[in-house]
Amino acid sequence: MRQAHTNEPAPQPTLTLTQPARLDMDALTAGSIPQRLLRDRSTLLHWIQWATSLGWVLTALYLVTTQVLDTWPTEYRFLGVITAMLMLVVYQTVGVFRRYRSKTSSTLRLSQAWLLVLAGLAAIAFLTQTASEYSRLVVGIWAGAALFGQILIYLVTQHLSSLWQRRMQVNMPALVVGSGHSARHLAESINRNPFLPDYVAGVVDDPEYVADWKGHKIPVLGTLADLPDLVARMEVDRVYIAMPVERSAEVAELQRELLERNVDIIWAPDIFALNLLNPCVREIAGVPLISLSESPLSSGGRAFMKSVMDVFIASAVLLVTAPLMLGVALAVKATSRGPVFFRQQRHGWDGSVFEVWKFRSMYMHDDERVNQATRDDPRITPVGRFIRRTSIDELPQLFNVLNGTMSLVGPRPHAIAHNLEYGAQITAYMARHRVKPGITGWAQIHGYRGETDTLEKMHQRVRLDLEYINNWSLRLDMWILIRTPFALLSENAY
3-state class of 202 per DSSP? Predict the structure, then answer.
């Protein structure tokens, strides 16, 4: 366990002779050594699965190579070493073997990790120009055999471990303190996981909080005042405290009462009643940090990868659509007075203001108030009606992507006047600016594009935008881009 040492001695608790000696917990913890709280919970099963998978991958490489080439060349030995190093990094990062999942989910995660290893090997071969030194037949057979063997090993070890758990280990009773959504999810997850050493025998909470728990197969065993007696009578090994953050004072009191009961106390703070944005847990110097609202692109690596994808795809689309954009520009200029492009200030990443570019689709007019386009809007030109219906008017925003003010995928940028209007009516509305605005987005492929003529429609758009931010990944961006052409058939844009 990693520890940080201090040169000053810890303060000693003061004991008196007139009263029973009792340790001052505040005094003890004030000078205690910070410890790592977010610990790696690797199990014996995890290491067995990791070692056998690596062993099979290297064995398969040796067998395939010697069978096809009748020898074990040095370059293939080097390939084995590099593969082992990549597996160590990739499997640790992806989280293979580390969490209980369904068999389908686990095999998909294992397959994904192995494909990433193969991609890493391909990149190394390309950069070092050594690809020609390896037989495609050997590498192809090895890659398939290695994946099949790893999946088989995983399924067999999981099955054997499950049998061992059922036959050799007696699950120990645990209690969950709290009866909210988080407590319910925690209790069900513990009882559904065959690899945990305990099971939830019941929940404990005061009567005013247990109304939503009625009908659940896990019973309510008593109130908070009954907890110490329940722990002693049921020989409970572990207590999970899953209470809302507003009841933190009760958590401290419960911990104090249970401290001398020889029972494990685990706090699972119920933060999910809050308006969370990309929540996560980390630590600094042993202090646990719970992020309640954070941009998923705050770390440089993820933001860089999204920017690379944006620039690459936007450049390619611009090259392909250049003739179309030139034709649209000529049509806009020839059919109505005014500039080719329409530019308007919008809120961007973290609320910064930028100018969004579109092909002009309306006649020149003066509006004191920014009004959304409506069906059969007389302000829209004949050419404008077509390019708005097909979203061709959005193509100039590819230049916004290239200059870094927009992304291909993200919440659609609204006019500043609309942000001020809806921000006062919809909770967490402005949180949609924690990522770059996009040309398309999660809300758009779900039909929320074009006019939002009711507050409910805008509320649903914001809900989907926040859902996107909470679940952001490059894979999700690619899925949205694939779905976008089909969303253009929606009748909501005009």
Answer: strand
Q: What is the C-alpha separation between 482 and 494, in angstroms, rounded?
A: 22
Q: How far apart are CA 179 and CA 182, in angstroms?
A: 8
Residue that the structure tokens 């685990």 belong to:
266
Q: For the packed helices 382-389 and 300-335, what is the interaxial angle rounded to 10 degrees?
A: 150
| pLDDT exceeds cutoff 50 at 5 | no
DSSP structure class, residue 362: B
DSSP string, 26-60: HHHHHTPPPB--S-----HHHHHHHHHHHHHHHHH
Three-state SS annotation for 71-86: CCCHHHHHHHHHHHHH
Distance, CA of 81 to chain centre: 32
pLDDT of residue 458: 87
Residues 6+ apart with CB under 8 A from 309: 408, 474, 477
Domain 171-273, what architecture?
Answer: 3-Layer(aba) Sandwich (3.40)
Do residues 474 and 306 touch, judged by C-beta distance below 8 A? yes
Backbone angles phi, psi at 194, to 5 degrees: -75, -10
Burial class of residue 287 (count of CB atoms within 10 Å of its CB; 0-12, 13-18, 19+): exposed
Q: Print the SS3 string covering 117-159.
A: HHHHHHHHHHHHCCHHHCCHHHHHHHHHHHHHHHHHHHHHHHH
Helical (H) or strand (E) element with 490: none
Q: Write down the domain spans for the chain.
A: 44-166, 171-273, 300-487
Contact 228, 236 (CB under 8 A): no
Rg (CA), the chain: 30
pLDDT band at 311 (very low <50, low <70, confident <90, very high): very high
Paired tokens of 383: 């050419």
Q: Which residues, at least 6 apart from 10, have a Cβ–Cβ distance to it below 8 Å?
A: 28, 30, 31, 32
The H-or-E segment that residue 286 falls in is none
Give pTM, 2 decimals. 0.59
Q: Are 337 and 346 in contact (CB under 8 A)?
A: no
244: left (phi over 0), alpha (psi -120 to 50) or beta: beta
